[in-house]
Amino acid sequence: MTTKHLRQALLVIIMMLLGIGIVAVYSASALVSEANYGGSIRFLTQHLFAIACGLVLGSGCLMLPYDAIRRAGRWLLPLCVLLLVLVALFGQEVGGARRWLRFGRWGIQPSEFAQLALVLYLADVLARHAGRLQDFWRGLLPPLAVTGLTSVLVLAQPDLGTTIAMGAVALLLLVVAKARWPHLLGITGVSAVALVLLIAGAEYRRRRILAFLDPWADPRGSGYQILQSFFAMASGGVSGLGVGASLQKLFFLPSAHTDFIFAIIGEELGLIGTTAVIALFGLFMLCGFRLAMLAQDLLSKYLLCGLVGMIGLEAMVNMAVVVGLLPTKGLPLPLISYGGSAMVMNLMACALIFHASRHGERFPLPRAADH
After folding, report:
1. How far is CA 258 from CA 14, 26, 29, 47, 264, in A?
2. Residue 354: which of 2, 1, 4 has the closest Cα?
3. What Rg, from alpha-carbon coordinates, does the chain have?
4. Structural domain boundaries of the chain?
5. Is the pTM of this model over 0.90?
6. What are the pLDDT digits (tens) for 352-370?
7. What is the DSSP string of 124-142?
């Protein structure tokens, strides 16, 4: 397939995922919205508004000169770091986590935009300093330090799931940029040890691991959510109960319209529906990484790998959590779950994928200078 055909396929995939998400969000949230706000469409309206904002901002990204995209990470990441500091100081605490900055009725989750900013920053730095990556101190340590600082601020909220996702995408970019394998293995080893210590050092994280290993040990406590997810998936069977017919959304499954919306899709559309969603994300990654392989310049290649990897990784982790293959992480299903900041960020990322692909096809840049 040509790059034009790949972009057309990506556009169709994104539109299909958004369409599935709109139907699923309304189905999963209507009763909760009615019970809490007196109307069944409150969450749907906010979901559509987030999509509209994402499309507007994404269109703005498409109109920016590519050189502005190249420089964006240099100012956008410090801005996100500042917002993360403000979240730590003044953010709204919900469920024991402080992740939101509120402005009246509206709020933003800076950690979502920090992921996008980090990909932009790393793509730019790795492209400009490609010749230094074999040198740990001069080439690899600076982007690792920036990634570490951003990750620590997100972890402090606390948000281990997003922190892991950011680290995994950064590692992917280092692999694509051909950093030395001994360095990559060392980074992976240190990260694994840190992850074990973080889990061991927090009781609620230990409970999540125990619930993952044996949810039936505490079916009304730490294992409750994942068991309700299992019940939803099992009830759907092959063809599902039908759109709107989910029983688990009747206040049984927590976060039914956000992190666990894939379970509602499984209950209402069955194995056919969940397989379709998995296939769409698989095709999204296949087309995106193929575009990265065809890109003629390093910045476009790294941007495409980072952005596609970010969306694809979150999708895989979310679906794996819902079916019990991973411990609960608190990551939304990209382009489908209800969530304003995540939806806006993901649509901006999709727009940048198209922008990077077009530039990588038509306007190859000189190879990065070692400076």
Report:
1. 18, 11, 9, 11, 10
2. 4
3. 21
4. 3-362
5. yes
6. 999 999 886 665 544 444 4
7. HHHHHTGGGTTSIIIIIHH
